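The material for today's practical consists of a large collection of protein records. Read left to right, the backbone structure tokens trace the chain's path through space. An example says more than a description, so a record of this kind follows:
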Amino acid sequence: MAGPRANWKGYIRFGEVSCPVALYTAASSSERIAFNTLNRKTGNRVKREFIDSETGDPVERDDQVKGYEVENGQYVVLEPDEVAAAIPESDKTLKIEAFIPCSQIDTTYFDKPYYLAPDKIGTDAFLLLRDGMKKEGVAAVAKTVLFRRLRTVLIRAHGKGLIASTLNFDYEVRSSEKAFEEMPDLKIEGEMLQLAEHIIGTKKGSFDASTFDDRYEAAVAELVKAKIEGRTLPKRKAPAASKPSDLLQALRESAGFGTKETKPKRTAANANRGAGRPKAAKPAAKTKQASAPRSRAG
């Protein structure tokens, strides 16, 4: 069986060392369910057509040209050969400009991932780069022309090879300040924070992408199957609205500490003294035992 087809081939260069490499797509949406647009009346597929916005006439492919709007309705026309001439020439080399600690990587800038593997010869240099980055805990920042654009790429050790993620440009990433500008300046502490830590502790797991469910794809596939078989799927019941409760009470219930009315002193602070995390079964018993010695002493 033939192996995967490379999306790009070239060289990776660090210092005076270079080796031939190949890029392979790491993520693809080709397996997703795709739809065609049909004419409801005839059941036939419809085709898209470019129409002149003023005359209403169809525009053939040879008459279609790119344009940049400079004013309302005024465009600068860019011919295909002009666009091609403006694209940077590619020397097919990933030039590593810097090595940065993996802890400094801002994943907000990640665009698309590609597997980076050695191409035919030069495996020793490739392995040297991979193992060196693993040992130092760093990633490489490199630049090259990929798919007709000068791109910055972040390269990290990944399994037996490397993974190269194209990065969004700074102007493409929106500032987080506007997204968070209405966040209140509050400090959560005390019982609420301890309860949250307890809940997080009980839910700890490990990253396993095989457990990620694409419920949309599964639901659409089941709908298509039902349509083919002439079945109708049962209608879903509307989810019941949750009862209103305050944050502290919701945390107590999530942690399994019961209701506020029946067990008011059941807190994570009592269970968290000494070592270890709060346990659901001990706080109530501890509250009862606290008063017993005093009654005997009296």
Summary: Residues 186-200+243-284 form one domain.
